[in-house]
User: Fold this.
Amino acid sequence: MNKPKWTDRERLELITAYHEAGHAVVAVSMGIGIRYATLRPRGPEQRTGAVVFRTKPRDQWSFPHSVVWMAGPEAEARALDVADLDEEPSETVVKALFGYDGNDREIVMYHAMMHSSGPRDLRKRIDEVQSLAARLVKNEWKTIVNVAAALWQNKTVTGKEIRRMFKATRHTGGSVA
Ligand SMILES: [Zn+2]
Assistant:
């Protein structure tokens, strides 16, 4: 029996689950507190996930927080590589993916511009954020998969739950950065 075809909505929700799990787990790995991660719709956008941080507003301009922003697109890219999403995505899905993905990268770019002394320094800062985000997403992938699954099932996962899953992966021999 063939598996049923994914609807656009299901497909976007699954990818969004990985995206938000990437933000959340990398935040926890860097000691940034989070209240919860959610897939619950909040507005008219096609993609409606969110992670709510405990960070003070001024700390949202820090290097670790930039890495956390970049971890969403990184986890999403990795999920697209490994997830069983082999059917041709519809135009709606492709548009929603590209529209959403640009948001986090813009924030990272803006933060880097605020701190950089020139174009070369800007490039270097963005590369640093990108490579650390990619490395952490790779190292924390087991936990990201678990958190994405919990999001998929329950729609909202608390920071406490995510920290518990993070520690559980450590105890069962998950890779360490
Ligand atoms: Zn994001």
Summary: The beta strands are 34-38, 50-53, 156-158. The chain has a mean pLDDT of 83.
